[in-house]
Structure formats: structure tokens, C-alpha cells
Design a protein that fits this description.
This protein is of the alpha+beta class. It folds into 2 domains: 5-109, no CATH class; 112-289, Beta Barrel (OB fold (Dihydrolipoamide Acetyltransferase, E2P)), CATH 2.40.50. Helices cover 24% and strands 25% of the residues. The protein contains 7 helices and 12 strands. The chain has helices spanning 5-14, 61-64, 75-83, 90-107, 126-135, 156-171, 248-253, and strands spanning 27-28, 37-38, 40-44, 70-74, 112-113, 118-124, 174-177, 192-202, 226-231, 234-239, 260-273, 278-289. A 5-stranded mixed β-barrel has the order 8-9-10-12-11. A two-stranded antiparallel ribbon has the order 1-2. A two-stranded antiparallel ribbon has the order 3-4. Helix 1 crosses helix 5 (126-135). The two termini are 26 Å apart. GO terms for molecular function: endonuclease activity. Keywords: Endonuclease, Hydrolase, Nuclease. InterPro entries: HNH_nuc (IPR003615).
């Protein structure tokens, strides 16, 4: 047997993408979140094999790959706990997992539930939203080819957008208000925040169905597509990956360079450049905020599908 993709997502979500032992952020990037890699590993508390570390023949095989027997660790500590089972018996690993989840709850205690206020979805960072949905105990699965971008999905795009709209309106993630970034601090790295404000736009391309967008970003904040906002001497930059722009109309709202638009959504702080006075954040979802009259003209909310299989 093996750990299913759905279970892996659940373990990543409940651990907030951090190592249960050292709290290290396990979504790694050397260029402010442009090229990201998952550097965490799902670890068995009781070993999967009969001769593995902390093996227990009394546990049924079908239970070894369930979430209760798994925790998320960085690669260094996964290797270490398996090399030294005498230091990390199953009881200690279970305790580490429980304390880690308690730590996450405490970290989120200053946050408030976010109610989706998006009238239209212009940007869906599907990998990031998958982890966020697991943290909110909402599972999301998809079987779509995104290599040329969401806007190339054709007739499948409507189903994807409706499914994620329903997901966002149900899961109510814990976030904080967009802070005043005129005096940033290290504690803000990894912070999930909501925004509903005007941003300047820069470098966004026009939609092109012939381009493979999977390697479009280059890690250069002077050239990559983005929206940004100034806070005194500091600038908040949110890099916009064209892969996750939903429609041709949405491309227009991120253009032209030097323009501006009002966006609402969620983002996570990735890095703080104290020399350049730049805060870089990764947007998870962006769209146009609802007007006060939106709900009056959208009375039939039961049409949003509750299934997230797309």
C-alpha cells in the first residue's frame, strides 16, 4: 500500500506546510517564491514495512497509511528520526505531531475567518489553494492539464471556476487584514493575509494559447508580471503567474504596465528585502470584489456545485 494523494494533501494542510519538529517552512524558493519546491516529506510514525523504524505488527496494514499515522517533516528530520528510532519512538513522534498542531492553532489565534467577497475569479493559484483547502478540512482534487494556463482549458474552465468559487465560500480560512507594510518584520514571513485595495499593474502579458506558461516566470521582479502597492518607502509586490490567470478578460485587468485596478483576495508573505525595501507575496486567489448589490442579483446560490472534483 502507499499513502494516497488525498491523504498527502491532508497531512500537508494540517501541518501548515511546516516541519512538525523544527517548524521550518517546507515550500522552498530562492527567488522570492517564483520557482518553488516542496521540500517536506510525509513520515510514518509506525513503519510501513515489517523491518522499518517503529514497526508494529499488531497494526493492520490498511491503517499504516492513514493520517493518524503520518506527520510532515523536513528531509533532514525525516532522515534523523528514522535513523534513530531509539530517540524517536512512536509515542514521541505522536506527541511531536500533537504539539505541532497545537502550535499552529495558537499561531492562528490572532487571525479571523475570511468570507469570500469575490464577484469573479481572475487568478487561482491551484497548488497553493490545494494546501490551504486541506488546512480548512476541505479536500480538493482536479484532473486538468494546466501547462498552457487556465485560460486554455476551454469548456472545462467554467467547472473549475465554479468549483473553486464554492470551495472559497465554504472553507472560511483564518487570515489577517493586510498590514501596514511601511515597517515590516521577520515574523510576517509566511503570514496569510487578505486584501481589498487598489494596486498598480506591471509586465502582464496578453493571453496567448500557443505559449507554454509553465516556465514563464524568471525570478526577476523588474520583469515578471505583478501587482504592487507602495507603503511609504516600501513596496509590496505580488508576482502574478500567467498560468493561473483564468480568462482573457482577467488578463486585461492585469494590464497594461503602469495601470491600476482594485483587487480582492488572499496572499502569503514570501520574503522581505531590507536592502531593496521590497516585500514579496504569493497570491493564492485574486478577483474583483463584490459590489453591495451583488447578492440582490444573485439569489440562486444553490447552483454552485458542492463537489470539488474537476
Amino acid at each position: 500500500m502507499a499513502v494516497s494523494p488525498k491523504t498527502r494533501i491532508q497531512v500537508w494542510g494540517e501541518s501548515a506546510a511546516r516541519c512538525a519538529h523544527c517548524k521550518e517552512q517546507l515550500i522552498y524558493s530562492e527567488d522570492s517564491g517564483i520557482h518553488e519546491s516542496l521540500v517536506g516529506e510525509v513520515c510514518h510514525i509506525f513503519a510501513q514495512g515489517k523491518k522499518g523504524p517503529r514497526a508494529n505488527p499488531n497494526i493492520p496494514l490498511e491503517e499504516l497509511d492513514l493520517p493518524n499515522n503520518l506527520l510532515l517533516l523536513c528531509r533532514k528530520h525525516h532522515k534523523y528520526v528514522d535513523d534513530h528510532p531509539e530517540l524517536f519512538p512512536a509515542e514521541r513522534l505522536a506527541e511531536i505531531k500533537i504539539k505541532h498542531i497545537d502550535w499552529i492553532v495558537r499561531q492562528l489565534s490572532i487571525s479571523k475567518s475570511w468570507d469570500c467577497n469575490l464577484a469573479s475569479l481572475h487568478y487561482l493559484n491551484i497548488p497553493r489553494l490545494t494546501i490551504l483547502s486541506a488546512m480548512s478540512e476541505e479536500m480538493v482534487t482536479y484532473d486538468i492539464d494546466t501547462s498552457r494556463g487556465l485560460h486554455c482549458l476551454g469548456e472545462k474552465l467554467l467547472g473549475v471556476m465554479l468549483a473553486y468559487q464554492g470551495l472559497l465560500e465554504r472553507m472560511h480560512p483564518l487570515v489577517i487584514e493586510m498590514p501596514d507594510f511601511s515597517d515590516p518584520c521577520e515574523e510576517q514571513i509566511g503570514m496569510l493575509f487578505k486584501f481589498n485595495d487598489r494596486f498598480r499593474t506591471k509586465n502582464a502579458p496578453w493571453p496567448d494559447r500557443t505559449i507554454d506558461y509553465s516556465n514563464y516566470l524568471k525570478g526577476d521582479v523588474t520583469k515578471d508580471p505583478q501587482v504592487y502597492k507602495k507603503f511609504g518607502n516600501w513596496k509590496l509586490i505580488m508576482i502574478v503567474d500567467p498560468m493561473w490567470i483564468t480568462t482573457s478578460t482577467a488578463f486585461c485587468d492585469f494590464s497594461p504596465s503602469g495601470g491600476q485596478n482594485k483587487f480582492s483576495g488572499l496572499a502569503m508573505v514570501k520574503s522581505i528585502d531590507y536592502d531593496g525595501h521590497i516585500i514579496t507575496a504569493t497570491p493564492l486567489v485574486m478577483g474583483i470584489p463584490k459590489s453591495p448589490l451583488h447578492d440582490i442579483f444573485n439569489m440562486d446560490n444553490n447552483r454552485i456545485p458542492r463537489s470539488i472534483d474537476v
